[in-house]
Task: structure prediction
Amino acid sequence: MRTLYLIFMSLSVFILTSVLLIRQNTAAVFGDHADLYTITVTLNKNISPEEMAAIVEKIKNLDTQIKSAALISPQQQLQDVQSALPSYSKGLFEDEEITYVLNPLVEVLLTAEADLSTLSLQIKSLSGVEDSSVGNVWAEKIKNLFKTLNIILNTVFILFFIILSFLITVLVRNYLIDAKDRISLFALLGAMPLQAFKNEYLSIMNRTLLAYFIGLFAASGLAYFIKNKLTSNLNFTFISERLDFLTLESLALLLSGLMLNLALSYFLSYQYILKEYYHHES
Amino acid sequence: MISFRHVYKTYDTDRHALRDISFNLNSSEIIFLTGASGAGKTTLFKLLSLQEKISSGELSYKNENIMSYGLKEVANYRRGLGIVFQDFRLIPEMTIFENIAIPLKIQKLSNKEIQSKVVSVLERFNLSPYSSSYPDYISGGEKQRVAIARSIVHKPNLLIADEPTGNLDRQNAQSVMALFKELAEEGVAVMIATHDEGLIKATVYKNARHIHLENGSVASESIL
Result:
């Protein structure tokens, strides 16, 4: 029973940690490509520089998911094309009048969590804006995929956490039943409930801590192995650079789970012993 | 000291483990309890050790209703109790010394006190050579002596023993009985469940009684 408990706990902590690592690194790999999440805003040609600046300010203040909004004047656009395609553009843009053909643009950078379509529509409704389009159509798709994956991972984590807590409780109870001869002897010789099961509880606690350590160590080891493989064998350095081990938040989440399980098992053990050996119910 | 007044213990509606049990057990008294299997001896011991609650009647200790005891009072009452279990109930992972020391550890005595009390009972029961042995490596008779040693090491007020001489030869059984008489003379109330009628007849003690149970009731009660 004791070995079974250790194996089961270690495995569960390993799975929980892995889910947390996948969730965290999915966000790191797919969620932080800020350049993917852009909206290109086309402004009307006939508005003044002051009006342009005002629109840029309005866009910036539209939503907290907007990281930046930068105005790209027609002149700037021409310079960009010239520097990008010097041989093709030679002489093409010498006529200054060409700048009148171009609309001023605003490039809006957003966070991965931003709702691109809704924001694009909101921006389009602003006065002085001619059009607004999502920079990369496929970015929207990736973002949705990422969102769905995140929801699935969160659900898996919560479900697993609940199931794990329930199973731990059952195992702790069985553990106590397994040690009932010893506990009942102590109770009959005059021990108070805590005295009667102190040794058993300490043993459960030690095993739980050991299992958490094994699970965390194994999951982190696996993550380190994958990171190394991505770098050395597959040359996915850009992904590898973004991969990280558990953040402080994730670690705190796992540790609070540990505390919760220990507190719950203590409470249930105490109740069980009160009822079983002292005929008391609190 | 202990008083049973019209005590009933019912497990199912139609199954009485004990019915209308009334008797007193006082300090310095020994009661031998006999009866066939299922007569109610074990149930009576369970009531005395507060492992079970009575269904009706009154069970009191020093004029207090022990069924109304709170958690602390239950523990305190049990600390004044010495129990010899039929199956010894020794902890295999503990040495003989540690097993005997359990009641003293529970009472949080100092290591020095524990050492002197345990050494004293080890000598009394000729168990000193086994002090650091483990229960699995001693004989049945030795285990029984360890179980008895553990039940008296803390000087209980009430001693209940379930077949305490079952695994002992005649000579050891008589020396255990001599010890129980000694304890009774010191003021301990002793209740012994036994099948050994010969042991009862051989016991010469001024305050000894014999209660015979049949189907959960007292069938006969006599002064020895």
